[in-house]
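User: Could you write out the 3D structure of this protein bound to zinc ion? I've included everything you need below.
Assistant: Certainly. Input first, then the structure.
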Amino acid sequence: MGDNDIRNIYCIGRNYRLHALELGNDVPTSPMVFTKPTHALAPMDGNVVELPGSVGEVHFELEIVLRIGRDYGPGMKADEIIGDMTLGLDLTLRDVQSKIKAKGEPWLPAKGFKGSAPLGAWFPYPGQAALEQRTFKLIRSGQEAQRGQASDMIFDVAALIEFVGANYGLGAGDIIYTGTPAGVAALVDGDTLEAYWGDRKVGSCVIKLA
Ligand code: ZN
């Protein structure tokens, strides 16, 4: 299954306490879900990702991304239906987001723009227990920018699968960005981003702000 076969792109907001707090948000009491168009997808294989450079800050958010391998049905366990995983970037136009949040408008302009969903290389999902033992990190132009661990999620993978599956539906080919740990910041033109699962590099890209 390639990236062309990806169907729905679900994203979870504020799923790590320290990230919710760093943006001045309340910690949610149920999963906060939004979506991106499939046109947001971009590779992370050393390529250049072109992003809007004239509408304020573009923030990186490194996240664990889950790919669903089987259609969800009531009572099915997360470990049964998740096929693969990778790390991805939920790129965000933060100044645009602040404006639309203040007005109560939908998040699409801030979260759904073209190139806003770069994805690393897929590998088999190891199950939630193994997932929660590994750290992941983002290296920005040679320096560690973010480090996270799934055990710090406010809503764990099992809870996310149940919530999204029951409320919106989950089928083979859907993916879920599971939220970002603390450390988000603005990209600058020419930044190199490298995503690591443990010691293993799963993706990289170069940012071009145009
Ligand atoms: Zn995010």
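The chain is about 20% helix and 40% strand.
User: Perfect, thank you.
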